[in-house]
Write a structure and sequence with these properties.
The chain has 280 residues and is an alpha/beta fold. The chain is 23% helix and 16% strand. It has helices spanning 28-37, 63-73, 94-105, 180-197, 203-212, 237-240, and strands at 6-9, 48-53, 82-85, 109-113, 133-138, 156-159, 163-166, 174-177, 215-216, 229-230, 271-275. It is globular and about 45 Å long.
């Protein structure tokens, strides 16, 4: 069975497993969480997952809900925790960006989906924030996925097209979905594995490690300013240092495309928090 952890909706009266505002009634969040930490296809299979729902049953949210969610995450000592933020918004929100800064100052690693408009990712509400790690989507042909946002604001690409992970409709169900929402949790899961070896790693050092260990120069169909970097787990001594303590069964120095695009990974230390998990 896949498990996506405890759901916390931003309401104080969520007591029913049938209340649509309190459960995943779309499947997006379940699929995203399962990519990062699912027990079958997840990258960080032993991770603890906390799902925070900021969209109601009608698919509506607000900046204030996003800020409230980040503040909820920041309540305690979160060093070594991870937030996966698979959502997209246009415009600019200083309140959200300040809330993200408070998270990273506490040692929380924040991963963001680049967006699915086939447009410059720098136009997004959160994608100009240097405190987050921004992930575009690639396909099984090592190409930028046609829907993926692109540009200099991205950190790298990860598999985001035709990704197999858990289906919310039944406990043993699986479904194939596409989007940069699927790419971001690949990176979050890999970060979790690195944090298993070194939980004290700062977000800035983690982001640099992921960029430095990515496969370079293999992607095609890129746009102006795009980083030609594809997510990879690297266990080589000269690159990863203390990461050698991670079991080779989990990390076998692999890139994530094309043949390994659907592999999962797992998280042993820290908490993966999925925000905006049920964005329609």
């Amino acid at each position: 069975l896949e498990r996506v952890g405890l759901t916390i909706a931003l309401r104080s009266d969520c007591t029913s497993n049938t209340d649509r505002d309190c459960i995943d009634d779309d499947g997006h969040g379940t699929h995203v969480a399962a990519i990062a930490a699912g027990t079958k296809y997840g990258i960080a299979k032993d991770a603890k997952v906390l799902s925070i729902k900021i969209y109601d049953a009608k698919g509506k949210s607000s900046t204030s809900k996003v800020v409230k969610a980040f503040k909820h995450v920041a309540k305690n000592d979160r060093t070594g925790d991870i937030v996966n933020f698979s959502t997209e918004a246009t415009g600019r929100s200083l309140a959200v960006n300040r809330a993200i800064k408070k998270l990273t100052d506490k040692g929380v690693h924040v991963f963001l989906a680049a967006g699915n408009r086939d447009a410059d990712a720098c136009g997004g509400q959160y994608t100009r924030n240097v405190e987050v790690f921004i992930v575009g989507a690639s396909n099984n042909n090592n190409e930028r996925a046609s829907f993926s946002n692109w540009g200099k604001c991205l950190d790298l690409y990860a598999p985001g097209q035709d990704i197999l992970a858990a289906d919310y409709k039944k406990n043993d169900g699986y479904v194939v979905l596409s989007g940069t929402s699927m790419a971001a949790p690949h990176a979050a899961g890999v970060a979790a594995l690195y944090l298993e070896a070194k939980k004290s790693m700062s977000p800035q050092d983690m982001y640099k490690l992921l960029r430095d260990t990515a496969v370079s120069g293999q992607l095609t169909a890129l746009e102006t300013g795009d980083p030609n970097r594809l997510l990879r787990i690297d266990t080589s001594p000269q690159r990863s240092g203390s990461l050698q303590s991670i079991e080779s069964a989990e990390l076998s120095d692999k890139s994530f495309a094309p043949e390994s695009a659907r592999i999962g990974a797992g998280l042993a230390l820290g908490l993966i928090v999925g925000l905006a998990s049920w964005l329609p």
